[in-house]
Amino acid sequence: MGMFNRALKSRFGILQRGFAKIGGTQGQDLAAELLKMSAKMGEIIDVKAKAKLVGSNVAVITPAARSKDAKIPYNSIVALRGVEKEAPALALDLREDLLGALVLDRAKNVAQFEDNQIDVHAEGRPATFKFGSESFGRVLDVEGKDLSTGQKPTKEKERSLELFRSIRMSAKARRRIKPRRQVYTGSIPIDLCEPIPEGSFVVLHGRRGTGKSLVAGRAVKAFLSEGDRSRRRIVYVSYSRNNCERVLAQAEALDARDRVLCLSIAENREHSSQAFLLPFAGAALAHQLRIDGEDVLLVVEDVVSHLCNELGIFRALKQPFSPISLANELVTISGTFLEGPASLTTLVAFEEEEVQEEFRGEATRLKHSLESLANVWIDFDLSDAAFRRILPKLTPGPNLHTFPWQRSIIRRLTDRLSEILLRVREEKNALELKRELKITVDPWDHYFIFDSEYFMKLLITSRELNTTQMILLVSFVLRIVELELSSQFKDSPEKLVEELFKFAANFKEYDDGKDILTYIEHVFTQRGDDEVHVDAILEGVSRLVEIFTLDLKMKGRFEAFKKDYLPGDV
Fold it and tell me: Cα 318 from chain centroid?
């Protein structure tokens, strides 16, 4: 690119001098226009301006830099030069008469600048993120350096992505098509109650410690396990290097480390420039991989910390908000696009209680914005976990929460599960009403709601499930609910799930000696939406329940009769 710019500069210089010799207004106008084009293509713009540091990573450039004769391009790189020091900075457009700069170098390298001795030198080049094929399987910073070794991608294999502008697509490039398949997370409450279609913008909302990072990590694992792995990439953005290393370890266990690239910061969160640019670098990378024809899962952790960092930067510049919206950038690049076609699915984690008091109002506005933009909004709430974490937003009517991009077996199970969850909610409301009116409650009148305490815990198991195990477990729960067997199991829900999978691995009643788990996987991955085979799975589960309960009864772990509940049991 440098060679290209130098050659272009030479051509522009010759043409400019030629047009200037023509004389007259037309020649001068052509020469001036070529000068502007030359600057846009990456030439050095010599600007006489001053800057003043207002923080270790923020500077205000004086209005002289905004003159009509020499305007610093928005989002371009400038150099702040002191007596002995020089630091690169990103020019941030604030107002017509004011420009700001985000210092990209380490804070300690610019702290020695004296306010009245900082000159601004504009280079006219955009901020970029550099990566190469050898960058995958590593944790990089926003400069493309490996955080473990400090190495950058080799020049021969290096690719440079322009931040901010690289994801501004034309109207034609933004044309989307309908989702073709589902993105799985290994969580029944999400995969059946709040399913995620590919190309979605998904928000994981909840307090710290409620499982958002866990679900995001499982989504990464499921994404690499399903479909054609050679066409799938993961871009994981986190301020925590430990989370990045954990994701890479998961990918390595699947022999898919080379399909994952993690972005983090070299220092702590206080280093504002690294933290501010990090998610934008991830967005630019994910967008480019999608253009290259790969299906991409982009995970951005902790957007609230990014918001607080962003507000700190722009308030130091006397600007109330950033002109760059991270949420809008992420929504713009998410989707299944006509060109390709390939998909980009984005998962964003929002932790509300992490907000500092001074930023609460802005965080609330961001939350409302994300709610309006999100295709899927998933709440993580620890209170009343047996109900609130699994109950979807149900609207009475046919085909609750089923979509054409879901596999036939998933649609069938979702339909039946939705009916059960709706019944649980209705009966629980009726039970609460009786208690409020001080009407005597006979447990046998609401036996289903008492029974649900057990089978709901089966559905929200903390165990990590692949798609095959999820299909078997939900089918099993639907069958025991139908037969009203929930109260007769002596084992804890977690123990029962473990025993179920062990028993199923030896339950071989299919052709070629396949066990039921192998048969489900075979149908799910190869037979597609064949209803005959879906029926065969459900019939197999019915036989499994019959023999499994008989086996538990022989071992003394299954009650002979239903439990006789007492009014105070729930």
Answer: 31
Token pair for residue 529? 């939406």
The answer to whether 464 and 186 are in contact (CB under 8 A) is: yes
Are 104 and 227 spatial neighbours (Cβ–Cβ below 8 Å)?
Answer: no
- pLDDT digit string (tens) for 352-408? 776 777 788 888 888 888 989 999 888 876 554 444 444 333 333 334 456 778 888
Neighbours of 146 (CB within 10 A): 16
Q: Are 326 and 342 in contact (CB under 8 A)?
A: no
The set of residues, in sequence order, having a beta carbon less than 8 Å from that of 61 and lying 6+ positions away, is 49, 50, 51, 72, 78, 91, 98, 99, 100, 101, 120
Query: pTM for this structure?
Result: 0.81
CA distance 316 to 53: 10
Residue owning tokens 């002995």: 84
Distance, CA of 232 to CA of 220 (rounded, Å)? 10
59-64 long-range CB contacts below 8 Å, 24 or more apart? Answer: 59/89, 59/100, 59/101, 59/103, 59/118, 60/98, 60/99, 60/100, 60/101, 60/317, 60/318, 61/91, 61/98, 61/99, 61/100, 61/101, 61/120, 63/97, 63/98
Alpha helices in 383-492 (DSSP H): 385-388, 408-436, 447-459, 467-483
Positive or negative CA dihedral for 287, 289, 292, 295? negative
Mapped onto helix, strand or coil, the DSSP state of residue 266 is: coil
SS3 state at 558: strand
Q: How many CB atoms lie within 10 A of CB 357?
A: 6
